[in-house]
Design a protein that fits this description.
The structure holds 2 protein chains of 2 kinds.
Chain A lengths: L2 H9 L3 H9 L5 H7 L3 H6 L10 H11 L16 E5 L3 H12 L3 E5 L8 H4 L8 H13 L3 E3 L10 H7 L1 E6 L5 E2 L12 E3 H11 L23 E5 L3 H12 L3 E6 L10 H10 L2 E4 L1 E8 L5 E12 L8 E13 L2 E4 L3 E2 L33 E3 L2 H4 L4 H22 L1
Parallel strand pairs in A: 1-2, 1-4, 2-3, 4-15, 6-13, 7-8, 7-13, 8-9
Antiparallel strand pairs in A: 5-14, 10-11, 11-12
Helix pairs in contact in A: 1-2, 2-5, 3-5, 6-14, 10-11, 11-12
Chain B lengths: L2 E8 L4 E7 L1 H6 L5 E5 L7 E9 L4 E7 L3 H8 L5 E2 L1 E6 L10 E7 L2 H14 L3 E8 L8 H7 L2 E6 L6 E2 L2 H10 L9 E7 L2 H11 L5 E5 L15 E4 L2 E4 H4 L2 E3 L5 H9 L23 H6 L6
Parallel strand pairs in B: 8-9, 8-12, 9-10, 10-11, 12-13
Antiparallel strand pairs in B: 1-2, 1-6, 2-5, 3-4, 3-7, 4-5, 13-16, 14-15
Helix pairs in contact in B: 5-6
Classes of the chains: A alpha/beta, B alpha/beta.
C-alpha cells in the first residue's frame, strides 16, 4: 500500500481521497483500521526514541470520515464468469471484492443468516461495531457481489449443484472457528464454555445491545447460565475479548494466561485496556483442572504457576512449572479460549477434497487450487488460525489466483 | 427466500407441529437430520428435527416443544407468517439398513426424531416394532403416524391413560425377555430417542445381548454448524460434536454420565438469577388444555 501517499492526502485534509487511495489495495479499510495487528507499526519506527506513526489509526480515521454520502453504484460489466465464494468472513469478503473489481460475477454463500462470519459472530461489538461491518458489506455489495444467506455448502447445496448453476470456480473461505477440545479434566462440567460458544451466544443475544462498560448491562438478555466469578483461560485475542465482554456484563473476571503480558500474542495496548477495565490478570499460570461441585457445576479452577528458567543450561530460557506453586481460583463459570482449529467440515460434504493432517485444506502453492479442479481455498482454513489481516491478504491472493486460472484457460 | 408457515397443529399443551415451506431442505432431508431455525431477526436459533418432508410441495414438518423463549416464540407464530431463517438439512443421517427385526423406542419429543427412522427402516424391508412413551395419552405425539410406520406398536403412559401404565423401557424389557423363546425372530437392531435416562437404560439392556443400538441425541446447540462446542459429547473416549458428527451415535460407545452433565448444564434455574428461563408461570404441571383434553375434572 502506498502509505506515504495516503498520509499526505490526510495531512492535506482530503480524507475522501485518502480512502480512495487505501481502497485501491485494501477493500475493507474500516475493518482493517480496527482489527489489524499492525505489524507495520513495529517496523516503521525510524528510531528507538521516535514512536511509530499510527498507521492503523490513520486508516480508521480515513474510512470513518472519508466515505461519500452517496455511493454511486457502478454499472456491472461482467466477464461472463460466475464464481461462488463459500463463507463471508474477512477472507471471503476480501476475495469477493477483489474478484468483483476484476469484473467477475460473484456470489457469497453464507451459512449464517447474515454475512460477516467471524466479524459478526466472533468479534465483540466494542471492537468492531455492527454499523461499520454493515457499511463494509454494503460497499462490497454495491460492487456487484450477491450475498446468499442460509446456504451451507455441502449440505444445503452440493458442489455439483453449484457447477450446474453455472459457477465455474468455487473459493472455500470457511475460516478457523472450530473449538479445539482440551483434555483438561472437568472441561465438560456445567458452566464451562468454549470461547466460540460464549462469543456466539453473546453476539446472538446481544444484537442491538451495546455492551457498555459504564452501564454494565444488567438487563442484557443472556440466555445461558453465567456466574458472577468468571475465569478465562487462554492467551490470544479471543481470551481477551471474552474477558472484556464478561466485565461489561458486570462479572468479576480473572484471566489465566500462560504467557507474560510483555510477550503475549495480543497487542500490549489491547491487554492494557483489559487491565484498565478491571480484568484481574494471572499471567504465567497454567490451568491443571476444573473442579466441580456435587451438582456437576464449576466451583474452582486449580492452576500452576510457570516461570522462565534455564533448566537445561542451554542458554534458552523456557517456561517451566514452579514447584509447589499450585493455587485455586474460585469460579462460577469458566471460558476456555485456548486456540481453535480450521473449519474443514465443509470437506465432509465434498468428495475428493484433500485435507491435511492438521485439518487445513491442501492447496497447490503455485496456483492456490485444491485437489479438485476449479476449487480454491483461502484464509484461515488454509493458513490455520491467524490474525484477521493475514486472512484478508490470503483472500486477496486467492482472487489473483482465480483470475490467473481463468486467463490461462482462454 | 421466504420460509412461510403453511400449517400448524397443536398436539398438547406445549407441543406443536409446524409445516414450513422450505424446498431446498425438503428435497434433501433424510431420517435423523435436523434444521436450524430462527423465528425472528435477533432471536436465538434452535435445532429441530425434520420428521416429515414433502419434496413435491417443498414442505418440512417439525415438532416444537416450547421450553425456551425461541421455541415459545416459534410456537406462537400464526399460519402464513414467514420464519426469519431456516438452515439445513444438518447432521449426519441415521444409518439404516436391512437387518430383520428392529425396535424403535422413543419417549416425549423423541417420537418425532424416531418416526422418520422407523419409516426408512420399514421401507428397506425390516420388521419394525415401535415402543412409544409419554406422560399422558395426550402427550403421546404422532401415535397414528407411528402405527402406520411400524408393524407392531406398544404404547406406555406414566399415568396409565393409554395402554401400558409405566415406562417405555418396561415394555422393552418384557420384549427382550421374550427373545429366547421358540418361534421368536432375533432382534437385530435398536434405535432409541428420548430422555437420557431412557436411552441409558436401553443401552444397558442391549449391551449384554450385543444388539446394535443407536441413540439419537438431543443436546443444547447454539450454531448447529460445529463452531461452538455446546453440543459436545464423549463417544468412544473422544469429544465430538452432536451437530456435525451426530446426532445419531452408537449407543454402546456414548458416555452417558458425561451426557447427563451436559444436558443438565443448561437446566440450572435457581443458581443464577440472570436468565429468564422457559417455564410458564404454572411451572411444570400440565396446562388447562391438556387437563381438559385428558378428561380431568375441572377444578
Amino acid at each position: 500500500m502506498d502509505i506515504p501517499a495516503f498520509v499526505r492526502l490526510l495531512r492535506d485534509g482530503n480524507s475522501a481521497g485518502a480512502l480512495k487511495k487505501i481502497q485501491e489495495q485494501n477493500y475493507l479499510p474500516g475493518i482493517c483500521g480496527r482489527l489489524c495487528s499492525a505489524p507495520c507499526e513495529v517496523v516503521s519506527g525510524i528510531s528507538e526514541e521516535e514512536p511509530p506513526a499510527g498507521i492503523r489509526a490513520l486508516e480508521r480515521f480515513a474510512s470513518d470520515s472519508g466515505r461519500p454520502k452517496f455511493e454511486w453504484k457502478r454499472p456491472a460489466v461482467r466477464a461472463g464468469k460466475k464464481i461462488a465464494v463459500v463463507g463471508s468472513g474477512p477472507a471471503g469478503l476480501t476475495a469477493a471484492a477483489g474478484l468483483a473489481a476484476k469484473g467477475y460475477g460473484v456470489s457469497v454463500l453464507e451459512a449464517f443468516d447474515q454475512p460477516g462470519g467471524v466479524l459478526r459472530y466472533g468479534i465483540p461489538s466494542f471492537r468492531l461495531p455492527a454499523a461499520v461491518l454493515q457499511e463494509e458489506v454494503g460497499t462490497v455489495r454495491s460492487a456487484g457481489v450477491e450475498f446468499r444467506a442460509n446456504c451451507y455448502v455441502g449440505k444445503t447445496v452440493g458442489l455439483d449443484e453449484l457447477q450446474r448453476e453455472g459457477f465455474e470456480a468455487v473459493l472455500l473461505a470457511t475460516g478457523a472457528g472450530v473449538p479445539r477440545f482440551q483434555d483438561l479434566p472437568g472441561a465438560n462440567l456445567g458452566g464451562v464454555y468454549y470461547a466460540e460458544e460464549f462469543l456466539l451466544r453473546v453476539n446472538f443475544a446481544g444484537r442491538g445491545h451495546r455492551l457498555s462498560l459504564k452501564t454494565q448491562d444488567a438487563n442484557f438478555p443472556l440466555g445461558f447460565p453465567l456466574g458472577n466469578k468468571v475465569v478465562v483461560l487462554g492467551s490470544e485475542y479471543m481470551a481477551l475479548d471474552c474477558a472484556r465482554i464478561a466485565v461489561r456484563l458486570g462479572k468479576h473476571v480473572s484471566w489465566v494466561s500462560p504467557e507474560a503480558p510483555e510477550d503475549k500474542r495480543v497487542l500490549r495496548e489491547e491487554s492494557g485496556y483489559a487491565r484498565e477495565e478491571g480484568v484481574q490478570i494471572e499471567a504465567l499460570a497454567r490451568p491443571l483442572e476444573v473442579q466441580g461441585n456435587e451438582r456437576q457445576f464449576v466451583r474452582a479452577v486449580r492452576c500452576l504457576r510457570l516461570d522462565y528458567a534455564d533448566t537445561r543450561a542451554t542458554g534458552q530460557w523456557e517456561l517451566t512449572p514452579v514447584p509447589d506453586s499450585e493455587f485455586v481460583l474460585d469460579a462460577d463459570s469458566v471460558i476456555i479460549a485456548m486456540g481453535h482449529a480450521p473449519n474443514s467440515l465443509v470437506a465432509r460434504g465434498i468428495e475428493g477434497l484433500k485435507v491435511n493432517d492438521d485439518g487445513t485444506i491442501w492447496i497447490a502453492p503455485h496456483n492456490g487450487m485444491t485437489s479438485l479442479k476449479g476449487v480454491f481455498a483461502c484464509g484461515d482454513v488454509v493458513t490455520k488460525a491467524g490474525p484477521v489481516v493475514e486472512a484478508m491478504a490470503s483472500g486477496k491472493k486467492a482472487a489473483e489466483h482465480i483470475d490467473n486460472y481463468f486467463k490461462s484457460k482462454i | 427466500m421466504d420460509y412461510k408457515i403453511v400449517n400448524k397443529q397443536i398436539f398438547a399443551d406445549r407441543f406443536k407441529r409446524l409445516d414450513i415451506h422450505c424446498p431446498q431442505v425438503a428435497r434433501k432431508a433424510k431420517a435423523g437430520q435436523f434444521v436450524k431455525i430462527c423465528p425472528a431477526e435477533g432471536e436465538v436459533s434452535i435445532p429441530l428435527t425434520v420428521f416429515e418432508t414433502d419434496p413435491q410441495r417443498g414442505i418440512i414438518s417439525l415438532i416444537v416443544h416450547e421450553t425456551d423463549p425461541a421455541a415459545q416464540r416459534l410456537g406462537l407464530m400464526p399460519i402464513n407468517e414467514p420464519v426469519y431463517s431456516v438452515l439445513g438439512p444438518l447432521g449426519v443421517p441415521t444409518p439404516v439398513e436391512r437387518k430383520g427385526v428392529v425396535v424403535c423406542i422413543a419417549t416425549g419429543v423423541g417420537i418425532g426424531r424416531i418416526l422418520p427412522v422407523a419409516r426408512a427402516l420399514k421401507q428397506l424391508g425390516n420388521k419394525v416394532i415401535g415402543i412409544i412413551g409419554a406422560r399422558t395419552k395426550r402427550e403421546l405425539l404422532l401415535e397414528a403416524q407411528m402405527r402406520i410406520a411400524c408393524h407392531k406398536i406398544f404404547a406406555a403412559t406414566d399415568d396409565g391413560s393409554h395402554e401400558h401404565r409405566g415406562l417405555a423401557t418396561d415394555v422393552f424389557r418384557r420384549l427382550l425377555g421374550e427373545q429366547g423363546q421358540q418361534g421368536q425372530p432375533p432382534l437385530r437392531g435398536v434405535y432409541a430417542a428420548g430422555s437420557v435416562e431412557m436411552m441409558e437404560t436401553v443401552c444397558e439392556l442391549t449391551r449384554p445381548l450385543e444388539i446394535e443400538t443407536y441413540v439419537v441425541l438431543d443436546t443444547a446447540m447454539v450454531d448447529c454448524l460445529g463452531l461452538c462446542g455446546a453440543c459436545r459429547v464423549v463417544v468412544a473416549g473422544r469429544t465430538v460434536q452432536a451437530c456435525v458428527d451426530g446426532p445419531t451415535f452408537d449407543g454402546h460407545k456414548v458416555d452417558f454420565n458425561d451426557l447427563k452433565i451436559r444436558v443438565n448444564a443448561f437446566k440450572e434455574k435457581d443458581r443464577w438469577g440472570n436468565q429468564q428461563l422457559a417455564s410458564s408461570p404454572k411451572g411444570n404441571e400440565s396446562g388447562i388444555l391438556t387437563k381438559f383434553l385428558a378428561g380431568y375434572p375441572k377444578s
